[in-house]
Amino acid sequence: MNVLLCTTVFLGSLFHRMAEPARAVEEADLGINVTVQRGLKTTMYRDPDDPAGALVVGEVDAQGADVVVMQLPKTREMLDCLRLLQAQGVAVVVELDDHLTALPPGHQGHDVLIRKGVGKIAETCAQEADLVTVSTPNLLKEYGAGGRGMVVPNAIPRRLAELPPAYEREPDVVTIGWTGTVGTHPYDLQEMGSGLQQALDRTRGRSQFAIMGQGEDARERLRLAEDPIQISWVEDVDAYATTIGERFDIGVAPLRIDTFNNCKSWLKVLEYSARGVFAISSPSAEYERLGIGYRAKRPRDWAVGITRAVEDADWRREVAAANREQVLAHHLTEHTAELWATAWRRARDIRSRKDRIGA
């Protein structure tokens, strides 16, 4: 079976939901040939019914694929491609790893995805696809209910999980770190309330807070006494994971519990844990399901957990090592390869049935 994966421009999603699954499936020798590329080869025509002569998709080249996977399709042209491919007898899978119609006001993608209706296009693509793959059970309820979808959880490549773990270091100053951009997490850091500053106060001289990404006004949001250390975002995902393990000792993953975040995957805590970083997180649906990391619901919990992890190095290392072992045992891309293959085979079978009955 030949599968063509059409990727998004967002490097994190491309890496975890396209490139690494493709690598894992190929290495598992599951009888599937996988090609990964940006976009589809199309032929555009001018719409004869449009006075302005707008270009429309007239033809799509499936490149010999039995299944085409569209990652985060959000344009009318991608919806047209989906329909044209199905008309050729090619199965189409839509891959989604976020609830694109639930972004809260204040999120930097809210205007495009909600107010301008781009998220609704993705929703329509999901409804018309032969199968939808998602990263969480809550996303399945939104996009793939009634047997139209399949959960394939996020996982970590073994090469990253086997890098020298953070807990092998003995730092004089423990770095508490967060990765992300405030613009895409406008309400999340605040979930720690005063807890982070309380922990920094209790461990003054032995701890520091760092943000890898775009911290923007994080100091004001958290009412910190000092600016966080700023670590430049690393675009390459292998280098990003390497940097987490080299710079962080404790990783925080605060999330406001809302519709959008309840659909988000367990990836941040998984990344921390894979690199041997002690993880402390909000009780989101996915973090709870993962069962890795220290749980913090109130500012007091953040203060207590972070403080203990700074002060008790043996406990911090013991917990981080146990969490990393869980990743190695259960959450590698080699563990999810068969799930990806099953999803693609299922999509092909669904399309074949529909074509036989003329659906």
Automatic annotation (TrEMBL):
UniProt-listed InterPro entries: YkvP/CgeB_Glyco_trans-like (IPR055259)
Transmembrane portions of the chain: none
Keywords from the named record: Transferase
Record-annotated Spore protein YkvP/CgeB glycosyl transferase-like domain positions: 200-340
Pfam families: Glyco_trans_1_2
GO molecular function (one): transferase activity
Superkingdom assignment: Bacteria
UniProt name for this protein: Glycosyl transferases group 1
Species, as recorded: Geodermatophilus siccatus
Organism ancestry: Bacteria, Bacillati, Actinomycetota, Actinomycetes, Geodermatophilales
